[in-house]
Structures are given as structure tokens and as C-alpha cells.
Amino acid sequence: MINKVVNNADEAIRDIQDGMTLMLGGFGLCGIPENCIAALVKKEVKDLTCISNNAGVDDFGIGLMLQKRQLKKMIASYVGENAEFERQLLSGELEVELIPQGTLATRCLAAGYGMPAIFTPAGVGTEVAEGKEIRRFNDKDYLLEMAFNADFAIVKAWKGDTTGNLIFRSTARNFNPIMAMAGKITIAEVEELLPVGSLDPDHIHTPGIYVHRIFQGEKYEKRIEKRTIRE
Predict the structure, then answer these.
(1) How far apart are CA 47 and CA 219, in angstroms?
(2) Which end of the chain has fewer CB atoms < 10 Å from its terminal CB, N or C?
């Protein structure tokens, strides 16, 4: 069997170059590939297009890449927790494409399934539809959306094995499995890396066929985006 293990995040992202398009898994601060983001910041690659549900916060996640002006374009569904993102957007430094969350997920799925495009009712009659083809099916209008074309998908899982099979934990599953399917090259960082055969096949969320590189990450932060406590 192919051993897909690399030593660390620096080796995993070794061939990511300026101007590439990256998918980054996670939702809010949950299930984000922290080690790979840190390696990208250290490598100082720039002019990147990032596809992610959100843009992190100012001092964590994709927010660290925004601080270093590494992003040319952000494709996301929700971006309301990042002041630096807002500043770059309003100043014209950052190109932004906001899309409905379901459309974001389905465009990932389309890429993973090898489909060039999808038709969706989301966004019809809004600014999202400007310049896009609309087709009518069964007396209802649908918007043509293209599948994503990402050079790399970078995801974070709870457990993985040396052949790339992945298990995600609870809500950290979020966008990670569908993005893992969609990149030309998929990098997975995991909290626990196990020998092949260690994972119950019935529990695997992403088969190793989709994963090209895997490594065990370190020093993960279990951040809480918004803490609510009872008085």
C-alpha cells in the first residue's frame, strides 16, 4: 500500500506556490487545519485564492494569513468575525466572493464528483445571480454555478491512518469531508495518526483514495468562538 505520510506541515505544503487556489476546511474555529495555516504563513506565499466557509478571526485561522496580506481573493459564506478582513475588503485590497452556504458546499461536492457545474435555486433574483446563466426547470428558475477548481484542499481530521483514511469528530466534520474530495491534491493533518488497519471501516468518513498527504499535527488549540455562560 502507498504510504502517504509526510513529516510535518512544512513538508506537506512544500509545493504550494504564489497565485494558487486553496480550499481550507473548517467552520468558524472548529476543525480548521491550524498547522498547515501556520506553515503557509511562515512560507510567505502570496496572491492566494482561498475557499473556506469563513475567514477566521483576527489572530487565528485564515485571519493570520490576512494579517500577512497573503490573500488575493476570498471565496466564503460568512466573514463577520474578522476586522482585518473587513478593512481589506472596504479598502479594495481583497477581492471577495460571498456565496450561499449551501452553494459553497454543493460546488465542493460537484468538484469531488467530477461534475463541471450544478443548478441551484439559491441566489436567483439577487446580486449573486448577476452575469450567470439562469435556466428554468419545472416552472422554477435555477442558477448555474460552476464546480470549484482548487489546486489544493487542506483539511483537519481527528484520526487518520497511513493510507489517508480519515475520521472527523463531531462538528469538526463540517466542510472537511467534502473539501477533501474536491482538491487536485488533498493534504490532511490529524490529531492522531494510526497504522493502516487501525480504523473501523464503518467509521471512516473520508476514504484514503481522496487524500494524497497526511501527517500528525501538534499543539492544537480548542478555541471557543463565542462563550455563553449562565449568570
Answers:
(1) 28
(2) C
DSSP string, 57-93: BTTBTHHHHHHTT-EEEEEESB-TT-HHHHHHHHHTS
List the beta strands (DSSP E) in 5-44.
21-24
Give the model confidence (pLDDT) of 21-37 as tens digits: 999 999 988 999 999 99
C-alpha cell of residue 83: 476586522
- Is residue 115 within a helix (H) or strand (E), and if so which, with residue range? none
Could you tell me which residues come within 8 angstroms of residue 29 by beta carbon, excluding any fewer than 6 positions away? 56, 57, 60, 61, 223, 224, 225
pTM for the whole structure: 0.92
CB half-sphere exposure, 27, CA atoms < 13 A: 16
Q: Based on C-alpha coordinates, what's the Rg of the chain?
A: 18
